[in-house]
Amino acid sequence: MDSESEADVNRADDSARPQAIDLAVDRRGVVWRSGGEPAGTPVDLEVDGRRVWSTHLPEAVNGVVRVPWPESLRPHLRGSGRIQVFAGDEPIAAGSFRFAPRPGGSASIPAPRSLAELAAAGTTVDKWGKLVGAATSELHELLLDAGAALIAVLADEGYRVAITGGTLLGAVRTGSILERDDDVDLLVYLGEQTPTDVSLASFELQRRLEQHGYRVIRHSDAHLQVPAGTTTAGRAAHVDLFMGFHHAGVYNQPIHVRAGLAESQLVPFEQIELGGRWFPSVRDPEAWLAACYGPSWRVPDPAFRFETPGVTRRRFEHWFGVFDSFRHHWQLSYDAVGGARRSDARDMLDRTEPGDLVVDLGTGSGRLAEVLAEAGRRVVAVDYASRALDEARLRADERFDVWELNLADRRAVTATAGELGGEGDVSFLLADTLAYLPEQTRRNVYGMIRVLAGEHGVAVASFPTRTSRRFAQQLPETWQLALPWLHDELAAHGLRFRLLRHDLRVIAGEPRVFAVVVIDVGDPDRSWEAVLMQRAKRMLRRGAGPEAPEPAPVESSADADARVAELERRVAELTEEIDELREDSRRIAELYDLVSQRLVDERD
């Protein structure tokens, strides 16, 4: 979905404006004496006259306002410049900043750009907290062309497609793409469907688009992204496709919308003007916008961010998965972490022979894949960041294969394992990769190792075992994988590890302790059977109540607290089981689609 402000991104200085309050800057944030603006006021923060990010004012404490830095800007707190804070067109605070130089950077890993350099390059923080280039009129024209072409292709294929999200918001508000938007959002309406059917429909939709020559990036089973070219300045454009469907009387459109919209409010689609062209729109766009953005959707808010209710977010994530949480991050910094060493490749060479197949998971630029290939190994280098893949393909020069694979996408991992299954025992290199994967994604990796390693295949992995001093959930290179965690995770998949050594390595400018391990096939851990037995016993206890209700005793306060605690525990158990059932619906779709496609391939 898209941002929803049309505010001008660059403002010229205007001496006629009211005098702004002096501000101060430190590494925690931007601070000034409150001028009386209420908490929640949307503001833009500019560096050297260019908007860099937008936020809402926090509550003033003792008359002082402090706006913290976005996490994505913290590595760039370097250099000097001027900061201004605007509420609408009015400056409310202004001042200069100067950060003392910090060590960092090398010939291979340059220091991060300064705030002033980011601003001069037109970089902004988007609503997801990511650093992106500012939108331009050229980008918007490219998006309009791409959106119109994609709608035509999908309509010819029989799909009901309309603009949605911020694209629809811009059409209703101004008749154009919102000034800060950097993509086009499209809705593919599927009618009444079960979540499993939605997953299957998205797989089929991806295949049809690929037959038309499109590259498709899967964010989830209900959210696909189609790259749409680049501007002359190199800014990439894309179109987002969201599956919309009714289920059990409720309209669902991941990633955010779950509302009581009737089908008659959506279809038949009508036409709406956008950028001087006509595009299909839902029948009642105002009702859809209220369901997505809330009742104040008409009021521009440059700092708007979706606050998806937890129950909705969890439902969509378990129905359709989350496959692309950090793709944009690794797109920008795929080879800048710096923890992978040539010694990781040598460890793999010590345990394999010429002609053995090695899969380099998270290859980045392909440096280590090149080392393995030069030593006579058959190498498949795998990544999912397109810039990494482009560089790895240039480096490969036909000496090794480069495959695109999102390890979070279990269906894609299963299909890839099927392609590699006839190649004999397979070994895996996980150089400075495993710790930066979410646990569910690591499970997919372990499953692939278990299936393909056979008797002679191994995996060599290196990873930090302690968290970074600057840990942030949004920065996966600050994560860690403790050895006890690895032991338990591997045991559940019938794998084990041996510790080769500990190293001290520098990643993102910080020294971290790394473990280097060898993973191979061991005895399966049967603890999951005990978990299933405990769950079955709980379900039997719930079904075996007393034959006749007994009078409720008078409860003391302590008894009542204990009863509430027990009910909360049971609710948590039921919630977990419901989530597992939702996850099962996606597993069913993945397996059904893979089997059906295999049968189609064999028939053809």
- Rounded to the nearest angstrom, the radius of gyration is 27 Å
| Global geometry | globular
Report helical residue fraction.
Answer: 25-40%
In the sheet with the most strands, the strands line up as: 4-3-6-7-1-2-5
- N-to-C terminal Cα separation, in Å? 39 Å
Secondary-structure-based class equals alpha+beta
Estimate the mean pLDDT confidence.
85
Largest sheet properties: 7 strands, mixed
> How large is the count of helical segments?
15
What are the segments in which pLDDT stays under 50 over at least 5 consecutive residues?
1-16, 105-109, 524-529, 544-550
Question: DSSP strand (E) fraction?
Answer: 25-35%
Give me a quick take on this structure.
With 604 residues, the protein is of the alpha+beta class. It is built from 15 helices and 25 strands.
Q: Characteristics of this structure?
A:
604 residues, alpha+beta, seven-stranded mixed β-sheet, 26% strand
Detailed description of the structure:
This protein has helices at residues 115-120, 137-156, 165-173, 195-211, 285-293, 310-320, 327-333, 342-350, 367-374, 386-396, 410-420, 439-452, 483-491, 527-543, 557-603; strands at residues 21-25, 29-33, 42-47, 50-56, 64-68, 79-87, 90-99, 123-125, 131-133, 160-163, 184-192, 217-220, 223-230, 236-247, 250-253, 257-259, 270-274, 277-281, 357-361, 378-383, 401-404, 426-431, 459-464, 495-507, 510-521. Residues 1-16, 105-109, 524-529 and 544-550 have low confidence and may be disordered. Helix 3 (165-173) packs across helix 5 (285-293), helix 4 (195-211) packs parallel to helix 15 (557-603) and helix 11 (410-420) runs parallel beside helix 12. The longest helix is centred in the C-terminal third of the chain and has 47 residues, at 557-603. The protein starts with 20 loop residues before the first strand and ends with a helix. The strands form 5 sheets. The protein has a 7-stranded mixed beta sheet. Strands 10, 11, 12, 13, 14, 15 and 16 form a 7-stranded mixed beta sheet that branches. The protein is globular and about 70 Å long. It has 604 residues and is of the alpha+beta class. It is built from 15 helices and 25 strands.
